[in-house]
Write a structure and sequence with these properties.
The protein has 109 residues and is an all-alpha fold. 78% of the residues lie in helices and 0% in strands.
Length: 109
């Protein structure tokens, strides 16, 4: 129950941020949900296939998700498509936090 409340607070935190135009859109939802999924998936791979303990699995999951999200933003900047977006990175971080809430809720153990 405690973890569900934390997840709800993360969503509620994101709503006021969406008042500004650059904070809204399907792209932001994709960043949030994608980061949540990738964090949980990386944790499961490290825990089940890699045989790592919970702490190391969480650390690797966070690291890989930040690396992928940052790499995507860097490629946007270098290719000149949309440019670097701190808003996208904020949604990536919120997605990582949501993934950790799910992991800690023993949903993916």
């Amino acid at each position: 129950m405690k973890h569900k409340i934390i997840l709800l607070l993360i969503f509620l935190f994101c709503i006021p941020l969406s008042a500004h135009a650059s904070w809204t859109g399907k792209d932001k939802i994709a960043h949030f949900l994608g980061s949540t999924y990738i964090t949980c998936w990386n944790y499961g791979v490290m825990r089940d296939i890699g045989g790592c303990n919970a702490h190391k699995s969480k650390t690797m999951a966070i690291s890989m998700t930040v690396l992928l999200g940052g790499g995507k933003e860097l490629s946007d900047k270098k290719l000149g498509t949309t440019g670097w977006s701190w808003e996208d990175m904020a949604y990536n971080c919120a997605g990582i936090a949501a993934g950790l809430v799910l992991i800690n809720a023993r949903t993916f153990r």
